[in-house]
Amino acid sequence: MQLLPRLAVTAGEPAGVGPELLIRLAATPMAANLVAVTDRELLQRAAARCRVTLHLLDDDGTDITERPPGTLRVRHVPLGVPERPGSPDPDNARHVLDTLTEAADGCAEGRYAAIVTAPLQKASINDAGIRFSGHTEFFAERSHAEVVMMLASPELRVALATTHLPLARVSAAITRERLEGTLRIVHRELRGKFGLGVPRIAVLGLNPHAGEGGHLGHEEQDTIEPVLDALRAEGMQLIGPLPADTAFVPAQRTRYDAVLAMYHDQALPVLKSEAFDRTVNLTLGLPFIRTSVDHGTALDLAGSGQADPSSLIAATRMALELIHRSHGARDAG
Q1: Burial of 50 (0-12, 13-18, 19+ CB in 10 A)
Q2: CATH superfamily name and code, 147-282
Q3: What gap in Å lies between CA 192 and CA 288, rounded to an integer?
Q4: Do domains 1-145+286-333 and 147-282 have the same CATH topology?
Q5: Which residues is 10 bridged to in the sheet?
Q6: Residue range 211-266, pLDDT digits in tens
Q7: Which CATH class is domain 1-145+286-333?
Q8: What is the domain partition of the chain in residue ranges?
Q9: Taking the model in full, what pTM does it have?
Q10: Given this model, what pLDDT does residue 329 score?
Q11: What one-character-per-residue DSSP string does 157-206 give?
């Protein structure tokens, strides 16, 4: 029988919905060797709140060929203090970072085939006096990699030229060098991870109407268009810069395989409004596969056992799809 891929699944913020989502994931018949990287007792309390029967096993690195629903292996990372659902405690910031470190280092060492992350609370980590801007940036620094954030649903893929920046800083952050590097990563990962031989990438303008020929801003003429022209000369299939307000109409969508947006809120509202429970956050450019939910910690739902696990389930399925595709590509090579 075929061995199940080992997935490191982090629980995120202990006081959020992450632990409960992880419990719901474990209750599914997902064909994966799920390894929860978190505190064992946190999971037991979450299972009790969700009224889910859970069988926890210490992870000893053993490969398995089947996983009965409700069975979950645990790489124990102790909490700093017991969680209070709905009330993040900065004393657990180090615990959260330790789970991410274990997952990333485990992938680098070949102990895990991919990482799936539940949501965390960035403010709680910063309140502990630790500079932290998100999963994406953490894994990039840990892996010494240039990365790109992408959110993907079955119908749409959106990558971001900038991520968690105040809007006032976006224009200065979009340089020719950065934009070229971002497009090269997206192009390479669409080929390698998604199996697209000649990816078609739509690139949004920064300004309304993509600058209106310079009347509504010069970033398109000064930065975006020269980069697109240079990469087209190398053979990349790039469309744009497109006005963001019409880039997602049905007629346009048939023209591209993915979109590169200039900033976080330029395109993500479109994606999340139509596929919130089916959208997955991916980090492109890492030396390993990392997927995540597309939502936050939902502190108002934490402890209720009512949080919807759909996005975490979708993230796990996508991780498995990417693992299988990468194995198939290696076998073909």
Answers
A1: buried
A2: Isopropylmalate Dehydrogenase (3.40.718.10)
A3: 12
A4: yes
A5: 37, 117
A6: 888 888 899 999 999 999 999 999 999 999 999 999 999 999 999 999 999 999 99
A7: alpha beta
A8: 1-145+286-333, 147-282
A9: 0.89
A10: 52
A11: EEEESS-S--GGGHHHH--HHHHHHHHHHHHHHHHHTT--SS-EEEEE-S
